[in-house]
């Protein structure tokens, strides 16, 4: 009789399979529950930690400002000529009206001589004309006086002969002769009076024309004398003659720039600004700079909007007072404000930004022994601070030194 053999439930193969499964499950659970963060030990003395603050964010930039004189006058030759005399040298302080150099111009001097001779000729002609007119006037007056005298005498004779003729004591012929003589003198007087009036009008016109001609020639001569005076070039303002490009014997053409004078009693600041800020720059915006431990204020007085090589220029005037002993060409680091202060979370600037681009930082815990990576959002920035839009809170501590040596670490163990 056959015996039924019962099959074993647990076999070595099953045991191995179960154990292997349990090990795999254990690894999975351990992987899921364990911390996979990459950690790195760092020395505390090799990092820089700062505290996040909440305060006024000032939107400003730092620019290099150069002091230049408030007023600079360029010296240009107004007439052509040869440098005859140099009265002063470059660098000399001058007063308004001081002589700088003298030019000689033979053609201009000859022109003046010729025009003077012509003017004197016209003046003599005017004098002679006036004399002739006056003599003619006297002659006409004398002639008129003579006619009046004869007319009065003829009228008496005529009246007398008329009365006598009525009594038949003189002939009719004598009366007619007296009447003809009287009428002749009356007509002659009219002619003399008319000549006198015409001569007066002509005389007035001639004198006015000659006087006008002389006056115009005098004005022309004054202008030429003025041109001759301008051969001696003088300082238009008081200041320092900072450049003088002329030598004795040198020929200078009209319009040539030969020097400049700076008014060193007051200064302004000039600077170049990156074109990125062109829409943020306006007149009267304030700025400040430090000289020998003292701060001075300035404000924008002029904006040159033309962009050259990626930048544009502005000028600023000093407010209230100027730094002592300011010199032309002296430079300062000036803080130029771009807007009103705004409250917010502020993080001091550091080299970490070069590695993270401002996208994340290492935030240190309260104990100061652990720093964890955290993503943040940086808004605006100025030369000192980043304006943090999100990711950080007031009084938190952040590592702001370089992150280059941290590699891919997510957590830093600070020792």
Structure described in brief:
The chain has 415 residues and is an alpha+beta fold. The chain contains 4 helices and 22 strands.
What is the element layout, followed by pairings?
Layout: H1 12-33, E1 39-42, E2 49-51, E3 53-57, E4 60-76, E5 81-86, E6 93-94, E7 99-104, H2 106-166, H3 172-229, E8 232-234, E9 239-244, E10 251-252, E11 257-274, E12 286-291, E13 294-308, E14 311-318, E15 331-337, E16 342-348, H4 353-356, E17 360-364, E18 370-375, E19 377-381, E20 385-390, E21 397-399, E22 411-414
Parallel strand pairs: 1-22
Antiparallel strand pairs: 2-21, 3-16, 4-11, 4-15, 5-7, 5-10, 6-9, 7-8, 9-11, 11-14, 12-13, 12-15, 13-14, 16-20, 17-18, 17-21, 18-22, 19-20
Beta strands, count: 22
Task: Assign the CATH superfamily of the largest domain.
Answer: Efflux pump adaptor protein, beta barrel domain
Q: What is the helix content?
A: 25-40%
Q: How much is the radius of gyration in Å?
A: 54 Å
Estimate the mean pLDDT confidence.
83
SSE pattern: HEEEEEEEHHEEEEEEEEEHEEEEEE
Query: How many domain modules?
Result: 3
Strand content: 25-35%
End-to-end separation: 83 Å
What is the architecture of the largest domain at the second tier of CATH? Beta Barrel
| Form type | rod-shaped
Structural class: alpha+beta
Are there runs of 5+ residues with pLDDT below 50, and where?
A: none
* CATH T-level fold name of the largest domain: Elongation Factor Tu (Ef-tu), domain 3
Give the number of helices: 4
